[in-house]
Write a structure and sequence with these properties.
Shape of chain B: globular
Radius of gyration of chain B: 21 Å
Distance between the termini of chain B: 47 Å
Number of strands of chain B: 2
Strand order of the largest sheet of chain A: 1-2
Number of domains of chain A: 2
CATH architecture of the largest domain in chain A: Orthogonal Bundle
Number of helices of chain A: 18
Helix content of chain B: over 70%
Largest sheet of chain A: 2 strands, antiparallel
CATH topology of chain B: ABC transporter involved in vitamin B12 uptake, BtuC
Oligomer: heterodimer
Strand content of chain A: under 5%
Largest interface: A-B, 42 and 46 residues
Distance between the termini of chain A: 16 Å
Structural class of chain A: mainly alpha
Number of strands of chain A: 2
Largest sheet of chain B: 2 strands, antiparallel
Order of helices and strands of chain B: HHHHEHEHHHHHHHH
Structural class of chain B: mainly alpha
Strand content of chain B: under 5%
């Protein structure tokens, strides 16, 4: 069996699984799996860029995804004028002061001669700057958060058209938020990479793990920016609303003509719009990743990955290339993050869990085949499908196992309740089995 | 008098909690450091190992409570601890046999082992949730306080109370015993010495006839004991919830790295450094400052440097500073 036949077969199996979901459960859940699978594939391409191409061990994926989600809010939501006039300038001034403090400290570090005087100056600059920052920042934040806290209490986004609901222009902002999410993540990745990329691989892992937690903490607690755990809901989206469709006679007529319930038809239609948009993004990124892999740049990256010392001896700037690919990969994760938030229509910082948004993506890349873009995409679809379907399968299995036990027995209820936690167990076992018996993944690197 | 009050408030809200938390972190970091020193990889599953050990302790405690075994004023969990350690040892040895040994024989790169430990983390996490569920579990019993705030006020006549929870006292005592035992083992026994030799120079150790599998087995046994103890103490002091242990991974790693990965003394120092910084920076200083300053200068706000939600940020920033300026950690790493 030739390689391309085998790979096509693998993709066909995953497609078959999703189709099976459509026939056995409902087309809505099949499309849901497909849509999130597309986004997961984008994240997997990002991680594969870092790990598969360059061997960078980034376990802070969740942070970049969350930054993308934040971008979806900052771009697509309408601004809150009262908040801007109340404390907008103060917040910006405060942030500038904070940045200036850090910059001044870095300058002192690099310009002054080493010694006690330098250490003291740095400490004075940092401590003084911190109090100055808090003095400017805190009152402005209080002013912003006081503006109608139940509905807004934050600065809002940049979508000046959202208030008028002139649909098309408002929706364009939702699409615009995707690249902006990428930019935001890229900026953060640049900062992180500048400080942490020189570290050994497991130190880099811990560092990125920490950064991700901090980004989530910021999004959870800085209410003026993201409403924190109060969540932002009703983010404008690039697809029509179901209710609008159901009130459009044309749509209802066409749906009934096709023999579909208008309500179900409208949800399917919206999901298909998303599928189309996500597919376009995925194909574009996949094309670019493939081009990059087979370019001199991609070969250089793999050379660096396989032997840093030799690559350096050939005159390659390893640190800069690492920074470059770290930023690129994180940007892709940021784009995916903005897409998730747009799809959900809400930003809920409490739902960002490292197991789901970092380690699961890693399982996808490893199972699919690190170093191979198609492998990463396949792994993403397969693992996402399992992540969703293990729960009902587990429940069914538990009911089968416990069918001999009397109803209401403690063990039976416990086992059936516990079925929900089967997915973590399954993911771990899949990861270990693949690592052991097929360490190069389902579609290995060529 | 005011100064005394300030001191009491400081101990009550900062020193005592930080010492207890620091002991828990130190025990966790010791486990990470042992694995790094002998097996040479960063074990991402450590937080969930702690959760698993603590879970067994919770289950055994419940069983003991139901049949009426208790330690009087001390928490029953202390009686359950040895059983939990045994259970955790069994789990880790089985994991090593089924998972890690294969990669050891292959001489796999450390980063592969880290990814493998990610898989183990998923399994342990799933196992814990599968058995006990993701919710909060209470298993603490016995006397709540060694000294309660009211007793202290009555005793000394000060305005501020000083409360020492039993769990905090137990944490410190148990941690000291554990550390003493560990250092005795590493420095005085034949097996301990062979472990240090193996960590220092693998080739030389093998040459002098040290059995690597034996060293690895003892490492897992010690790690299981340390992780379970840390997990139980943390669960007694705060509360038992599987997810919390996963989140502890970051401060634990920070402690181990700050002290110098592979160095047990460093792990302890790192644990306390991280714990104290977290508590000091996220504590609202108003209460202490009110006593220390003349009335005109009293702070109007809470005088809190950072909100408590940013405590991860504190351990992380310390970690980053140490890594940037002293990459081997405060104590030199890689020697057990």
């Amino acid at each position: 069996m030739s390689e391309s036949v085998r790979n096509t077969g693998l993709f066909a199996i995953v497609a078959g699984l999703i189709l099976l979901t459509g026939f056995m459960q409902s087309w809505n859940s099949a499309l849901f799996i497909l849509n999130m699978g597309l986004i997961s594939a984008i994240m997997a391409i990002g991680v594969n860029l870092q790990w598969g191409f360059a061997g960078l061990f980034n376990v802070g994926v969740m942070g970049f995804v969350a930054l993308g989600g934040l971008a979806a809010v900052l771009v697509a939501m309408p601004p809150v004028p009262e908040a801007w006039s109340g404390g907008g300038l103060g917040v910006i001034l405060g942030l500038l002061l904070g940045a200036a403090t850090v910059f001044a400290a870095v300058m002192v570090m690099s310009k002054m001669p080493k010694g006690r005087a330098r250490t003291l100056t740095v400490i004075v600059v940092l401590v003084g700057g911190f109090f100055l920052f808090r003095a400017v920042f805190d009152p402005s934040v209080a002013a912003i958060e006081a503006v109608n806290p139940a509905a807004t209490g934050y600065l809002g986004g940049l979508n000046v058209f959202a208030a008028e609901r002139t649909e098309l222009r408002a929706d364009l902002f939702a699409l615009l938020s995707w690249p902006v999410g990428g930019l935001l993540a890229a900026g953060a990745a640049w900062l992180i990479g500048k400080t942490a990329l020189g570290l050994r691989s497991d130190y880099l892992a811990i560092a990125t793990l920490g950064i991700a937690e901090i980004i989530i903490a910021v999004i959870k607690n800085e209410d003026w920016l993201s409403r924190g755990v109060k969540n932002v809901i009703g983010i404008p989206r690039p697809a029509p609303y179901e209710i609008t469709l159901q009130n459009t006679p044309e749509f209802v007529n066409r749906a009934t003509a096709m023999g579909l319930d208008p309500v179900i038809a409208s949800t399917l239609y919206v999901k298909l719009v998303y599928t189309f948009l996500f597919l376009v993004v995925l194909l574009a990124l996949l094309w670019m990743a493939q081009k990059a892999l087979h370019s001199p740049w991609g070969r250089m990256m793999r050379a660096i990955r396989d032997n840093e010392v030799a690559a350096e001896a050939m005159g390659k700037d390893v640190t800069r290339r690492h920074l470059q690919i770290f930023v690129l990969g994180s940007a892709i994760c940021g784009v995916a993050g903005a897409m998730i938030t747009t799809l959900d229509g809400q930003l809920t910082p409490g739902t960002y869990q490292p197991l789901r948004f970092t380690f699961l993506i890693w399982v996808m890349v490893i199972v699919g085949g690190s170093g191979n873009n198609f492998g990463a995409v396949l792994g993403a679809f397969l693992i996402w499908f399992l992540w969703i379907q293990v729960e009902p399968i587990g429940l069914w299995l538990m009911q089968l196992i416990t069918s001999g036990l009397p109803d209401g027995s403690g063990l039976k209820t416990h086992l059936i309740d516990a079925a929900a936690h089967m997915r973590l167990l399954t993911m771990g076992i899949i990861l270990l089995v693949v690592l052991r018996f097929s360490p190069r993944g389902l579609i290995p690197e060529k | 008098m005011d100064l005394l009050n300030a001191l009491v408030a400081l101990s009550n809200f900062v020193l005592i909690p930080a010492i207890a938390y620091g002991s828990q972190l130190a025990l966790g970091a010791l486990g990470v450091t042992m694995i790094y020193g002998i097996l040479r990889f960063s074990n991402f599953a450590h937080g969930d190992t702690m959760a698993f050990g603590a879970m067994i302790a919770v289950l055994v405690t419940w069983w003991m409570q139901s049949v009426g075994i208790s330690l009087g004023p001390l928490p029953t969990a202390l009686l359950a601890l040895p059983f939990a350690i045994l259970g955790c040892m069994a789990l880790l040895l089985v994991t090593d046999r089924l998972v890690y040994r294969f990669y050891r024989e292959q001489k796999a790169k450390p980063v592969i082992l880290v990814i493998v430990s990610m898989g183990v983390m998923f399994i342990f996490n799933g196992l814990t949730r599968f058995i006990i569920g993701p919710g909060d579990q209470r298993f603490v019993d016995g006397e709540r306080f060694i000294i309660s705030a009211r007793e202290f006020k009555a005793m000394t006549g000060l305005k501020e109370g000083l409360a020492i929870k039993t769990t905090q006292g137990i944490t410190v005592v148990v941690a000291v015993i554990c550390v003493a035992l560990l250092f005795w083992f590493l420095n005085r026994t034949r097996t301990g010495k062979s472990m240090r030799a193996y960590s220092d120079n693998e080739d030389l150790a093998l040459l002098s006839g040290i059995n690597p599998e034996r060293v690895v087995m003892y490492t897992w046994l010690i790690v299981a004991a340390l992780a379970t103890t840390a997990g139980v103490l943390y669960g007694l002091d705060k509360s038992f919830r599987p997810f919390v242990y996963f989140q502890l991974l970051l401060p634990i790693f920070a402690s181990a790295i700050v002290g110098g990965l592979g160095n047990p003394l460093g792990a302890i120092a790192g644990g306390f450094l991280i714990a104290f910084s977290e508590v000091l920076i996220t504590y609202a200083w108003k209460k202490v400052l009110v006593y220390m300053m003349p009335e005109a200068l009293e702070p109007s706000g809470l005088a809190q440097l950072l909100s408590t939600d940013y405590k991860f940020a504190v351990s992380f920033v310390i970690l980053l500073i140490v890594l940037l300026f002293r990459p081997t950690g405060l104590f030199k790493g890689q020697t057990i």
